[in-house]
Automatic annotation (TrEMBL):
Purpose of the protein: Hydrolyzes acetyl esters in homogalacturonan regions of pectin. In type I primary cell wall, galacturonic acid residues of pectin can be acetylated at the O-2 and O-3 positions. Decreasing the degree of acetylation of pectin gels in vitro alters their physical properties.
Official protein name in the record: Pectin acetylesterase
Entry's family note: Belongs to the pectinacetylesterase family.
GO terms for MF: pectin acetylesterase activity
Species the sequence originates in: Gossypium hirsutum (Upland cotton)
Broad class of enzyme this protein falls into: hydrolase
GO biological process per UniProt: cell wall organization
Record-linked InterPro entries: PAE/NOTUM
Length: 395
């Protein structure tokens, strides 16, 4: 109960800042990386398409998107040995941090189910094909859509702007609905998420564990959710400004949370996370003369001094996870790639040329950890030694 109260305090403070607004961080909404969200790998010509289910019971619970529409998820039923196993994947997509950016966001799929795709491809960790997703292909696989703008947290509103900040209620409404559809009988469950959803999988990890009997095997996976409180290229802290107030309570940054998570947690992150480079380390606001413009879009165009700065970011990330990695139950896969969200894309999750560390692909590493086949705590050598990376390059 004390932990739950602490989380609600964090959420309340966070949203006081988010609703009043003080920073125009529109890049979280417009990041070039989001163009990759539903990109289907050329390796997967016929992905499973899964329809959107709106949560009818959510409205009565006040669990609505930014614009007041119903939240939803995409669910493909498990079968065979996976019929009683559940994988819940929380969608990512940045944040809105003030009224103006949240008003903009409620006219997109990130803030309204009106604009959500009616069907999306299930690839990577959501794939239904054993040769593309060997450990979870026949589980119940659910992608919960993200429409609250704050990593499935918060419980307030802004009447003047007609904004609903109901992420915590959406999380509860979605899990309660899925529980009623069979998840309460889960023998094994995994909560995962990408980017802002990866942060949410950390924030809600212990809550998720507590939904099931102790006899159920329950773990969590955060993909690209390790957002660091890092110094940007101007010497400022862009992401700290976004989380202002929350950081004052030492709570919202994942690096301040991971050591307190009791449930087994796997952290998957690129050491040179593309989103963090673009939106936190070298955003235009910190680089008014455009010195970093080419580097932030294409790592091959970074100067020697810029690469030294990025190597420092990698070292900071490794220092952050030192304590976390000491737990026998936790897992770790930090590859030296310029990437973001590697579980959702088939070519990075599991394919013939997927990224590897010590000859182990991400899907195999996660499976080995989840099923206790092996301890997995692997950290790549620094860039440019890893030739297996699928680095993101933007035009």
């Amino acid at each position: 109960m004390m932990k739950l109260s602490w989380v609600w305090i964090v959420i309340a403070i966070a949203f006081l800042q988010l609703v009043t607004g003080f920073l125009d961080f529109n890049e979280t909404e417009l990041s070039l990386i989001e163009a990759y969200d539903y990109g289907v790998s050329k390796l997967n010509y016929n992905p499973l398409m899964v329809g959107l289910t709106l949560i009818a019971s959510a409205s009565a619970k006040g669990a609505v998107c930014l614009d007041g529409t119903l939240p939803g998820y995409h669910w493909h039923r498990g079968y065979g040995s996976g019929a009683n196993n559940w994988l819940i994947h929380l969608e990512g997509g940045g944040w809105c941090n003030n009224v103006r950016t949240c008003v903009y966001r409620k006219k997109t799929r990130r803030g309204s189910s009106t604009y959500m795709e009616k069907q999306i491809p299930f690839t990577g960790i959501l794939s239904d094909k054993a040769d593309q997703n060997p450990d979870f292909f026949n589980w119940n696989r659910v992608k919960v859509r993200y429409c609250d703008g704050a990593s499935f947290t918060g419980d307030t509103k802004n009447k003047a702007a007609k904004l609903q900040f109901r992420g915590q209620r959406i999380w509860l409404a979605a899990t309660e609905d899925l529980m009623s559809r069979g998840m309460r009988n889960a023998k094994q469950a995994l909560l995962s998420g990408c980017s802002a959803g990866g942060l949410a999988s950390i924030l809600h990890c212990d809550e998720f564990r507590n939904m099931f009997p102790r006899t159920s095997k329950v773990k969590c996976l955060s993909d690209a959710g390790l957002f660091l409180d890092a110094v940007d290229v101007s010497g400022g802290r862009t992401l700290r400004s976004l989380y202002n107030g929350v950081v004052g309570l030492q709570c919202f940054f994942p690096q301040n949370l991971i050591s307190n998570i009791r449930t087994p947690l796997f952290i998957l992150n690129a050491a040179y996370d593309s989103w963090q480079i673009q939106s936190s380390i070298a955003p235009p606001s910190a680089d008014p003369h455009g010195y970093w413009h080419e580097c932030r879009l294409n790592h091959a165009k970074c100067s020697a001094s810029q690469m030294r700065f990025l190597q420092g970011f990698r070292i900071e990330m490794l220092n952050v996870i030192k304590g976390f990695s000491q737990s026998r139950e936790n897992g770790l896969f930090i590859n030296s790639c310029f990437a973001h969200c590697q579980t959702e894309r088939q070519d990075t999750w599991f394919a013939a040329n997927s990224p590897e560390i010590r000859n182990k692909a991400i899907a195999i590493a996660v499976g080995d950890w989840y099923f206790d086949r092996a301890g997995v705590k692997v950290i790549d050598c620094p860039y440019p030694c890893d030739k297996s990376c699928h680095n993101l390059v933007f035009k």
